[in-house]
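ARCHIVE CARD
Drawer: 12
Card no.: 0347
Subject: one protein chain, sequence and derived structure
Cross-reference: see card 0346
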Amino acid sequence: MNIFYFLIIILCLYGIKFSGKNYFADYLSKDKTMAINGIFVLLVFYRHYSQYAETIGGGTII
């Protein structure tokens, strides 16, 4: 399960850009926050999946 979270962190950091000393005036616009919303949706789906995963031999599938 931790491997999945590690992969999500790597995907989040891939292609990250910093603005430097300047800041973006529209940093909370809908276009800028769509990727963050997608990450949280992915985490929620994974959490629901891990709760319903069948156990094999006392451990989970993942």
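Annotation on reverse: Helices lie at 2-13, 30-52. The first helix runs from residue 2 to 13.
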